[in-house]
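Good morning C.,

I know you're traveling, so I'll keep this short. The sequence:
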Amino acid sequence: MPITINLAPPTLIPVPRRPRWSDTDWEWLFPLIKNFQIPPAPTCPSPTDLDIWLAGSLDRLTALLKEFPPVSRRSHYSKPWWTPHLTTLRREFHKASRMARTHGTPPLRDVANISKAGYFKAIKTAKNKHWSSFLLSATPQTLWTAKKLTYGRAPSRFPSLPGAETPQQMNKVLLDDFFPAKEPFSPPPRLQLDKKAPPLTKEEIATALSKCSPTSAPGPDGIPYSSWQQVNRVNPSIILQILSPLVSLGYHPASLKGSNGIVLDKPGSLLGARTPCNDLEGKVTLP
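The tokens, ready to paste straight into the viewer:
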């Protein structure tokens, strides 16, 4: 089934505000999830009816999950090694520098130089301490991050493919290669239950979610695996009620066919793309 892949070139537009999912107030959210009700799926529906029912259910659920985590705008100035002590030193350094520029007396210039030396020495110390702590607590999942930090940040660029220079052309090339066009077919007017299809169980969903990494990139809805795992622990019937009609009817709805494409490249070559392919965090890895 074709999946829409969206590619975006580097942009200077500020990164939009994003939820801090790790700081979600689950104590307030748990009672709402326990009482959350999925409306019954339509009986013998048409594909359009099932799409409307699923999209409405997912919209209500995702809106509830996005309401509680605090939001912040990530900046390239944000550093994991920054401390409140460095903030105080930076404030004193700028204050001493302004006084030295205003009055220009030797004692004030000496104070400004001492503040500057102490400030940059504290920055170097904080960086080394954070790096040592990061390496001591490194896991197989964080080795790639350590390698990236060692090599430094690569310049912003957008990879190219033969005969494709714009995001729209790359989108067409990738779709034509991984999802070649087929003869169109008319969907059935009504979907019929498959009596031979085994029913979906809560254990299957819990097993599938347990294999998903909490640090993996989220899908188009922006909700990570860790939040979906929490939802399933509190109220296992929510995801079960959403997915059971799809399994029994053998239908892949349109609302689960969107994806965000992340192109991984080296200069002059395309390594691959990772595409979270639906709102419940399914993924397809393109070689």
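Safe travels,
E.
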